[in-house]
Amino acid sequence: MILIAGLGMVSPLGCGVETTWNRLLKGECGIRSLTTDDLKMHSFDRETQLYTYEQLSSKVAAVVPCGTKPHEFNEELWLNSKVYKKLPFVQFRVIVA
């Protein structure tokens, strides 16, 4: 999924038009193997995380890089932690709206 709003951009290649465009020009790909961390189930116990991961029919995805680096999506800038914990799977939709 790629969400574009104005001149901003959030994609599996990074956040920001310049970052995404430069990675596209280099022929880079945002598709990779998933890890349990990608599920963002940190409030669940490890056993539940692993069980959920094992139930996935595919373990390959285009994941938006999250974090605090300039090219990463930092959900804390947009949503407080209380709201984020309730909306981890719709965070991009809420922010773009």
UniProtKB/TrEMBL annotation:
Gene3D superfamilies: 3.40.47.10. Keywords: Signal. It comes from the Eukaryota. Residues 1-16 form the signal peptide. Pfam families: ketoacyl-synt. The keyword Amino-acid biosynthesis does not apply. Residues 2-44 form the Beta-ketoacyl synthase-like N-terminal domain. SUPFAM superfamilies: Thiolase-like. GO terms for molecular function: acyltransferase activity. InterPro entries: Ketoacyl_synth_N, Thiolase-like. This is Beta-ketoacyl synthase-like N-terminal domain-containing protein. The lineage of its organism: Eukaryota, Viridiplantae, Streptophyta, Embryophyta, Tracheophyta.
